[in-house]
Design a protein that fits this description.
The chain is globular and about 65 Å long. It folds into three domains: about 130 residues, Fumarate Reductase Iron-sulfur Protein, Chain B, domain 2; about 160 residues, 3-Layer(bba) Sandwich (FAD/NAD(P)-binding domain), CATH 3.50.50; about 130 residues, FAD/NAD(P)-binding domain (3-Layer(bba) Sandwich). It has a five-stranded parallel beta sheet with strand order 3-2-1-4-14, with helices on one face. The longest helix has 20 residues. By secondary structure, the protein is an alpha/beta fold. Helices cover about 35% and strands about 15% of the residues. It catalyses: 2 L-glutamate + NADP(+) = L-glutamine + 2-oxoglutarate + NADPH + H(+). One of its GO terms (biological process) is glutamate biosynthetic process. It comes from Streptomyces sedi.
Amino acid sequence: MADPKGFLTTGREVAETRPVDERVRDWNEVYVPGSLLPVITKQAGRCMDCGVPFCHSGCPLGNLIPEWNDYAYRGDWAAASERLHATNNFPEFTGRLCPAPCESACVLGINRPAVTIKNVEVTIVDKAWEAGDITPQPPERLSGKTVAVIGSGPAGLAAAQQLTRAGHTVAVYERADRIGGLLRYGIPEFKMEKRHLNRRVEQMRAEGTKFRTEVEIGRDVDAAKLRRRYDAVVIAAGATAARDLPVPGRELNGVHQAMEYLPLANKVREGDLTRAPISAEGKHVVVIGGGDTGADCVGTAHRQGAASVTQLEIMPRPGEERPSHQPWPTFPMLYKVTSAHEEGGERVYSVSTTHFEGDEEGDVQWLHLIEVEFVDGKLEQKAGTERRIPAQLVTLAMGFTGTDQENGLVRQFGLELDGRGNIVRDASYATSADGVFVAGDAGRGQSLIVWAIAEGRAAARGVDRYLTGQSTLPYPVRPTDRALAV
């Protein structure tokens, strides 16, 4: 155990953020560099090393949280990094991007603020990179087997790294011009600077993983031909079919899906563009959708110089305390103020968009909405509450409905889909096509980064057993596992 009295004597402290007026003028990460180091050992010491660490269950990766908290408290950063990487290929991603269901399941969180698990995690891995403790781990021998991984998001990268280290020759196919999937073009720079992604990709290259960018399986390469070229295939293409809003005026200029808007800002940061073709500069911006993607749109609009930013959510405003019907250790729905919300804008709950209004040039100018409420478990509109708000740029951030079926990948492989548009797989992550496996959102549906990495690791075991008859790779989650929830 780290500090036997730590949870009694030390209060919770989290990473310090830079002043709002400073950070909205750049795209750097919002946290003050190095702000965690002075406090993180005491924060790690708050871990109780409880008899049943429910944080393990809250995290699908099964992270050994009490163990690396103990090492961090004692200042043994190399040992902490080893324990952290034993279950997680990319803790610098999860430490920055995951909403930390482990903290919701922390035993200390029953009646006190939970341990800052996420902050300890990111400190451990950042110090490991600085100390040179993270190095390539190429296999000792090659198996002679080849694997194609379709998609380079967290699930695809995790599966590829596991299989490469197991001795297989792995090629990752990505339809974008750079590796990373949503990590590259969905996550804004202020949430995770892409240097963290770049050095992991370079580590994987040094281990032997091959990367093929600007190749879309189903369009550029026939999926059936790809299957014949490789001994096995892993589909980790994500759930990229965005939920639309079929209301009058949807066709107006200036109404875009979030994933049409966000990648352009990242391309500016990469140096590909001098200015984003879709920009919030000087405009009244409305973001429809109250989740993390919506918050990313809010933060991006602030940095582009929006005149105003309004975020709409159809559901009621959550409470700030854990509700009784979502008890510990489940992941509760709480009112969350992200760094983007700290930077300004208005959040409006319990409203539904009825239609958009444009000008003579076909550009959106107004969004019409109406208040809604739950009546007998159903959302109903409240008469007399209609109004309109200025909207010169609208981003739709309402989630995703399944994997892409328009590029031909699903049809060419002959894959079976479930009722939600996800690719069906068995307990080993194998699909209905021989030798074809699926990991991440393409099989699970829209989910968290920790689930994607966990599924990538688990699917790698299924592929390894398929190729060799046995496997010692980890199997952290089953395809049927779900988050702790009521």
